[in-house]
Amino acid sequence: MRRPTLRDLIIGAAVPAVALCLGAVVLGAGFASIRYGPNMLVDSKALTSYVEPAIASDPSDARTLVASAELASFNAPPQAFVSHDGGYDWHAAPLLLGRGTLLGDVQLASGPNADIYFAALGAQGERHGIHFCASTNHGDWFNHIAFIENHHGRGFDHEQLAVDTSRGRYRGRVYMSVLYIVRLQPQLNACGLLWSTDGGRRFHGPVKVIDGWCFNSRPIVLSDGTVIFPFYINGAPGASGVPSSGARAQNVDVAISRDGGKMFTPPRTIGTYEWLGAAEYKRRMAEAKTDFDGDPVPQFAAGPSPLTHRDVIYGAWSDMRTGDSRLLFTKSTDEGRHWSRPVRILTTGHPHDAQYQVSLAVNGRGVLGVAYLQYSSTTGRIMEMFADSADGGTTFSRPVAIQSTPEKIGFPANSGYFPIASRLPSSALKGRTFIGFVNPARRFPSGGDYVQMAVDRSGAFHPVWADARTGTSQIWTASVSAGAATSVPSNLAEADVTGDVDVQFGARTWDKARHLLTIPVRLRNIGKLPLYPPFTVAITQLRDPLVPASWAPRVTPSLVNADNGRHGVGAVYTYGSRMLGNLSVLEPGAETAPRTWKIVVNGQYPAIVVRVDGYESRER
């Protein structure tokens, strides 16, 4: 998230092109299939649009994840959420912030021990800066430990968080790359690095890396503590200090620090990306044709594995030189000194399909995961995709759609206007209050500048994304790993598994006029052995068995949307294999995806009793 600036309206000036190979990286024919679990909702109570979701894994516990995101309306502080079961169940993790309201650009990162860090742009009174929080209790709550102001310019923007988890001499050092405004008239930006040696209690800097019409990506820390600082920059601005609105090409650069972020090498260009130009951008937005990155910030990741592809740095970004978003990919095998020519990856056969909003992560075995949005020009829908590379980015697996419900292209729900107020900084209007009106759908057409992806200790990837399948742009996630699909035993037998299954509920809605309860329902395996779909939940009774029959309600609950059309006893909801991602098994502790039940509820003591049937191995 950023406060709107001239950069939002004007596209940068042209720069000299770097050689681009227009061929694509091939798909690996011998790769194992990708296994992914069901889509899980992080905040089931969201009433407004989320954008720019972030996620981090607990370095000491493979089952603990923390997620957050920016509220696109800017009218409330973001929240953090924690899961202790690998991403199935989530609950709020309080941010103990004290005074101040957060605005956005939420970031999460894991420290080398059990620390998880949270950062976001915000205010403290009339001062603007970065709120920095830390959790030392596996994400259950966060303590506010610093408010960072920019004493060298006019405020921070787009802070991007990274932590040195290496065994080198800078282990534990916390870094944030930032954009900051050096002057306003004419506007001059700079990209720099903040760094902390005490877990974020005090930050030094920013150490300037570059100034001009630039924008920063998330830093990368290698196994010896080397810091890679990626950013993109336009060419020389015009006389006003602002780039030409007709320009399209921008340079992707990196600078390198080997002394803990105190000094950087001169930047070097590793590629370019081409954008739409201001006129074409406005035309597509007017048509609600948002199948492209609204703000394509390049994303980078590096391999921590001591055995395979150690310190190989990968980069990817969305490019529109063909008129549609395509992912360009590059890598460096010598700590950022030299880079491969950017090439297209993960394209489809249709010339007007699009790939954008990419995130990268590398697990402990050196496998590179790539998550991104794909637009299908045939169906007019977008979906979250995933592919991996086990050979250092030479070839990629065939991508799979991990989003179970593709979303229709166009502006999502909650596209109304939300007010936001701030103090005006200029001397002529000092003391006045600016009130703007933000339309989340138009402000963040592709979900914001970035999304994050985490990797847990077991090597599983956890991408997060925002989609509006529920009518509101919410945070979704799924657990993804490389490997052959789970084989289904041949000796399965149908059984009553009610005692091994817990029924879990999401946030309900209540239609008072119709007495209609609408609620997402999931099934969780609380037993010790695997269970296999399909699972059927059958209604066996329409009253509370613990209440005397004489107290029973005169009007019993009525199931509105059961699969077999029944409304009372005998009504059935089926949870098939598609409710498990592509796993084909409900392991102990795992859950199905939610499906919606609609129930007309009347009476003083309404209740239903259910039986759950599924399949289990006869060898149990």
The biggest sheet amounts to: 5 strands, mixed
How are the strands of the biggest sheet laid out side by side?
1-25-24-23-22
What Rg, in angstroms, do the CA atoms define? 25 Å
Low-confidence stretches: 1-23, 236-246
Q: Specify the helix fraction band.
A: under 10%
Strand content: 35-45%
Q: Write the CATH fold name of the largest domain.
A: Neuraminidase
End-to-end separation in angstroms reads: 52 Å
Detail the topology: elements first, then pairings.
Layout: E1 21-24, E2 34-36, E3 40-41, E4 50-58, E5 61-71, E6 80-83, E7 91-93, E8 95-96, E9 102-110, E10 116-124, E11 127-135, E12 142-148, E13 156-163, E14 174-183, E15 188-196, E16 204-212, E17 214-216, E18 220-221, E19 227-233, E20 249-257, E21 268-274, H1 278-286, E22 299-302, E23 313-319, E24 326-332, E25 343-345, E26 354-362, E27 368-376, E28 381-389, E29 400-401, E30 407-408, E31 418-423, E32 433-438, H2 440-443, E33 453-455, E34 461-467, E35 474-477, E36 480-482, E37 492-496, E38 501-505, E39 509-511, E40 516-525, E41 532-541, E42 558-559, E43 572-575, E44 595-600, E45 609-617
Parallel strand pairs: 1-25, 8-12
Antiparallel strand pairs: 2-36, 3-35, 4-5, 5-6, 6-7, 9-10, 10-11, 11-12, 13-14, 14-15, 15-16, 17-19, 18-19, 19-20, 20-21, 22-23, 23-24, 24-25, 26-27, 27-28, 28-29, 28-30, 31-32, 33-34, 34-35, 37-45, 38-40, 39-40, 40-44, 41-43, 41-45, 42-44
